[in-house]
Amino acid sequence: MLERLNQAMEHIESHLDQPIDAAELARVALTSEYHFRRMFSALAGMPLSEYVRRRRLTLAGAEVLAGERTLLDVATRHGYGSGEAFARAFRAVHGVGPGEARRTGATLSSQPRMSFRLIVEGSSSMRYRITEKAEFRVAGPRARVPLVHEGANPAIAAFIRGIDPQVLRRVAELSDQEPAGIVAVSDQLDPSRAEGTELDYYHGVVTGGEVPPDLDSLVVAAGTWAVFENSGPFPQSLQHLWRDVFTQWFPSNPYLSRSGPEILRVRLSPDGERADAELWIPVERSTP
Predict the structure, then answer these.
(1) What is the pTM of this model?
(2) pLDDT of residue 125
(3) pLDDT tens digits along 60-106
(4) What pLDDT score was predicted for residue 272?
(5) Distance between CA atoms of 227 and 225, rounded to whole angstroms?
(6) Closest CA to 150 of 229, 234, 67, 207
(7) What is the pLDDT of residue 73?
(8) Can you spell out the DSSP letters for the chain?
(9) Which of 52, 55, 192, 216 could form a disulfide with 142 if both were Cys (CB 3.0 to 4.6 A apart)?
(10) Phi, psi dihedral angles at 49 (to 5 degrees)
């Protein structure tokens, strides 16, 4: 898997002067575009689009300082349709406009070429199981919230505090299958998984029954799920679990992530400092 990912990285480098097609990168990596984007984000620590932008502007920065081409030539060479668009993007990465950078010989930022390698630690193991589920529904209050990578999510915390306890009791009574009880469900995440992008968050239950019309509902198709177990400090260990699933488990197992919601079942300790959790990720078998 890592070898194919590195071939995709080489493809990026050889096509930086052209539009980069994520679907083509996925074909090079022998995986789906959905899984490729998520794997890249988890391994690289940034969305694919951001890496491509930074690499292009790194090369553009060197050409700006070299002074051999006009600024407009540099802009069009790296895919920008106007000098204004190029200047905005250049300033966002380098902190200075291209004209000023050329006049003053300014210090610029550089995004190195990335490659992926496997680091074998062997210090811990991941507890997981694979299960099949028929079509089900998620039922419960829903909110559109920003994605937070580290620490508590204030928007989700405020949303949960605002739910009427009577509504929550009604929702809890609808739970009739695993994962049991109130769960946190994330759906419609941006493919980039960038910090601050929005997602649909459900504070609800998994049910096979009918959902009352006054409750939000999400129909989830039948399919395969990988279920990961985790215990540790809250919320850090849960956020690290998601990272470890994509950086350690997927590269070592014959599965790909597929489109669908992610479900998190959490049981907090009495002091709220630690949690036992199950993370449900929709998956499919990868083809050889």
Answers:
(1) 0.75
(2) 55
(3) 999 999 999 999 999 998 989 888 999 999 999 999 999 999 999 88
(4) 83
(5) 6
(6) 234
(7) 93
(8) -HHHHHHHHHHHHHTTTS---HHHHHHHTTS-HHHHHHHHHHHHSS-HHHHHHHHHHHHHHHHHHHTSS-HHHHHHHTT-SSHHHHHHHHHHHHSS-HHHHHHHT------PPP--------S---EEEEEEE--EEEES-EEEEE--SSS--HHHHHHHHTS-HHHHHHHHTT--SSSPSSEEEEES--TT--TT-EEEEEEEEEESS---TTS-EEEE-SEEEEEEEEEEETTHHHHHHHHHIIIIIHHHSSEEE-SS-EEEEEEE-TTSSEEEEEEEEEEEEPP-
(9) 216
(10) -60, -35
CA–CA separation, 53 vs 217, rounded Å? 38
pLDDT of residue 193: 76
pLDDT of residue 288: 60
Which DSSP string do the residues of 171-215 spell out, in sequence order? HHTT--SSSPSSEEEEES--TT--TT-EEEEEEEEEESS---TTS
* Segments in the chain below pLDDT 50: 120-124
